[in-house]
Design a protein that fits this description.
By secondary structure, this protein is an alpha/beta fold. About 45% of the residues lie in helices and about 15% in strands. The chain has a six-stranded parallel β-sheet with strand order 2-1-3-4-5-11, with helices on both faces.
Length: about 350
């Protein structure tokens, strides 16, 4: 049987003081003589007393805790975002909870509801695929400061959004292929129910228009932001699209990994027979010899920016303006892209 948790009354008895005196020492409030403080601190150490912060938060209506809700914590992009958020929170002595939804709307709604009940001070939220924002009304009604991260919700203008420039990223990837001489360029995007999937496809189409290349509907596909989707879409392309594309751009690196596997399984050489470029880089410790031409976002900076905006909301409240903050992206050319093979 587990022992009973040490209470403030246990500490008071050990130090031979009133519970209010222990509270003042813990919270560093009011005058306490050095001798009394020493006795209380000694009792706290001896009993391994941990203050009940929940009770304190109920009294002060502040938990000093915020939450980050992401769609896939296994994705290195989101772990790096989380590190950026955590570093800013730590600098402001704010504690962070990280939640993972697996792109499930029900999990997102449950997390938001639970965190409101637990009196969370603020939230940073990555909306799930096809999310309507209905639960965000609950956040707004309960005056919970919130930041939307990475994705845009249609017709939603109540919260600041921090995101990368997906349209420009899709444009730069496609423009690079066009400048190499490719004209049959396949775009494999994520879900059309996610703003980033639509925006990266929009950038692809913009580059085609700029170069006077007509859009072939068979060369624009929407799937999921994962490796299996990239693999399946690529096999379908190789089996059914004639003539084959000479280049593929993808909306994230997990889709690209699926493309690589499918091409390898079919014996298609990159970049000799098929150029490949993607969105999002991997940290150097995971991918020490990067191969893919890629659009680089800075997820750490994205996390920091979102956390800084949330801290500002916690500090200044409604005086902080609602903004759509679009962070720049850049193209890094590597060995996976080359001019189209002739012959």
């Amino acid at each position: 049987m587990s022992k009973k948790r040490t209470t403030i009354r246990d500490v008071a008895r050990r130090a031979q003081v009133a519970p209010i005196t222990v509270s003042r020492v813990v919270n560093n409030q009011g005058y306490i003589s050095p001798e009394t403080r020493q006795r209380v601190e000694a009792a706290i150490q001896e009993l391994n007393y941990i203050p009940n912060t929940l009770a304190q938060s109920l009294r002060h209506q502040k938990t000093n805790m915020v939450a980050l809700i992401v769609t896939d914590i296994a994705n290195p992009f989101w772990t790096t975002v989380a590190r950026g958020v955590e570093d800013i929170c730590n600098a402001h002595k704010v504690n962070l909870i990280v939640c993972n939804t697996d792109e499930q709307q029900s999990k997102l709604d449950n997390y938001i509801n639970l965190l409101i009940q637990r009196q969370i001070d603020g939230l940073i939220i990555v909306p799930t695929e096809g999310y309507s924002g209905a639960m965000l009304d609950n956040l707004f009604a309960n005056h919970v400061p919130s930041i939307i991260l990475d994705r845009v919700l249609p017709n939603w203008h109540r919260h600041t959004v921090v995101r990368g420039d997906s349209v420009t990223g899709g444009y730069l990837l496609t423009k690079h292929m066009l400048e190499l001489g490719h004209r049959r360029i396949m775009m494999l995007s994520g879900s059309s129910a996610v703003s980033t999937g639509l925006e990266r496809a929009e950038g692809y189409q913009r580059a085609l228009r700029e170069f006077g290349v007509a859009l072939d509907p068979t060369l624009l596909r929407f799937g999921q932001f994962n490796q299996q989707s990239g693999y399946n879409m690529t096999l379908d392309i190789l089996d059914h699209v004639v003539p084959r594309p000479t280049a593929i751009v993808t909306a994230n690196n997990f889709i690209a990994f699926g493309v690589q596997k499918a091409l390898d399984d079919r014996g298609v050489n990159i970049p000799g027979e098929m150029s490949l470029a993607t969105f999002d880089d991997l940290p150097a410790q995971i991918n020490p010899r990067p191969f893919l031409t890629t659009i680089v976002q800075n997820p750490y900076t994205m996390g920091q920016e979102a956390a800084q905006r949330l801290i500002a909301l916690l500090t200044a409240g409604d005086s902080v303006p609602i903004q759509d903050i679009v962070l720049p992206v850049s193209l890094i050319v590597r060995a996976s892209t080359a001019p189209p093979h002739i012959g």
